[in-house]
Amino acid sequence: MTDVSAGTRGSGRTSRKGGKGGGNPVSRFFRAVSLFVSQILDELRKVVRPTRSELVNYTIVVIVFVTVIMALVSSIDFGFTKLVLWVFGG
Questions:
Q1: Residue 22 in contact with residue 15, Cβ under 8 Å?
Q2: pLDDT digits (tens, 9 = 90+) for 36-55
Q3: Which of 34, 49, 50, 84 is least enclosed by beta carbons within 10 angstroms?
């Protein structure tokens, strides 16, 4: 989260209560929501979207990784199942 007290979006005004925001609670709430939304939009402008080839590459990497982890967990589960059946007789 960025500090907005010295930011470029502020109007330069400070309240008499140490800069914690003046006015009634409703106007403070809407000011806070407005600031939150503007910060979200500022961050979304910084997002760099992947190219089509990068997206395909990342998707393949994720699918291969998930498949390997599934195989590992399945083999461990199969081994524990055989071990439990051998110990307790099934």
A1: yes
A2: 999 999 999 999 999 999 99
A3: 49
